[in-house]
């Protein structure tokens, strides 16, 4: 009995890793990679559940799904952080470090 590999298991694993790393780039690349990984996971999970004895690398697929979920959560939290930061200090302060320090001092009441 020759077992095949799931077609997208490696891609899901790589995209899961990319989603965690991509959360540092304002969250959007991580969010996109994580969503793509979950879509690919659902396709391969259906294949595996239809005939589990035929495929051998389900553990890579499941690990990729877990990483994608973690990456999506971290990306969403980072996007929320950036939105809150922009709404409190303003877009101009994000570009100018001295203005950022002044706005933070104003927020802290100093």
Can you walk me through this structure?
- The protein has 110 residues and is mainly α.
- The protein has a domain of 73 residues.
- 78% of the residues lie in helices and 0% in strands.
- The chain contains five helices and no strands.
- Helix 1 packs antiparallel against helix 2 and helix 2 runs antiparallel to helix 3.
- It is rod-shaped and about 70 Å long.
Helix content: over 70%
Main sheet record: none
Ranges where pLDDT stays below 50 over 5 or more residues in a row are: none
In percent terms, what proportion of residues is strand? under 5%
Number of helical runs?
Answer: 5
Structural class: mainly alpha
Count of extended strands: 0
Distance between the termini: 73 Å
- The dominant shape is rod-shaped
The radius of gyration over CA amounts to 20 Å
Q: What's the overall average pLDDT, rounded?
A: 93
Question: How are the secondary structure elements laid out?
Answer:
Elements: H1 9-22, H2 28-50, H3 58-89, H4 91-95, H5 97-108
Short summary:
This protein has 110 residues and is an all-alpha fold.
Q: What are the defining features of this structure?
A:
mainly alpha; about 110 residues; about 80% helix; single chain; 5 helices
């Amino acid at each position: 009995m020759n077992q095949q590999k799931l077609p997208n298991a490696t891609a899901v694993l790589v995209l899961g890793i990319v989603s965690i790393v991509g959360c540092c780039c304002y969250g959007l690349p991580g969010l996109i990679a994580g969503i793509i990984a979950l879509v690919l996971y659902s396709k391969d999970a259906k294949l595996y559940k239809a005939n589990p004895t035929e495929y051998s690398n389900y553990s890579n697929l499941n690990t990729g799904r877990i990483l994608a979920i973690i990456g999506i959560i971290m990306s969403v939290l980072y996007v929320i952080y950036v939105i809150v930061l922009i709404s409190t200090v303003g877009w101009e302060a994000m570009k100018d470090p001295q203005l950022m320090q002044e706005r933070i001092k104003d927020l802290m009441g100093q």
